[in-house]
Amino acid sequence: MKKTLALLLALVLVIGSLSAVAFADGADKEPYSFSMYSNITAELTEEDMKVINAVAESQNLTVDVQIAPSSNYNDTLQLTLASGTYPDVALFGSTTSQMYVDACRDGVLIPLNSYLDSGNYPNLMEYTYPISWEVLDVLGTGEIFSLPRTSIARQDCFELRKDWLDALGYEYDDTKAVTLDWVTEVMDAFTFKDPDGNGINDTYGLSMNSSDGNLNIPGFVNLAFQLTGWREYDGEYMDLHYSKTHDNYKRALAWTAEQYAKGTIDPDWATLDTTAAADRFFQGITGIRHEFVGWMSDDEVKCRLVNENAELSYVVFVVEEEGQPTEGGSFSTGYWGAWGIFQSAEKPERIMDFFNALLSDEWWNTVKYGMEGERWERNADGNLVSTADFGNISYAAPRQILRRNNDPGFFISLDLDLEKRLHVEELLGICIEQAVFPLDNNFRPSVADEMQFIDYQTNMAVQVSKIIIGERPVDDWDEILEGWYAAGGDSYVAEMQAYIAENQAK
Ligand SMILES: [Ca+2]
Question: Which entry of 144, 153, 271, 486 is 20 to 30 Å from 100 by CA?
Answer without folding.
Answer: 153
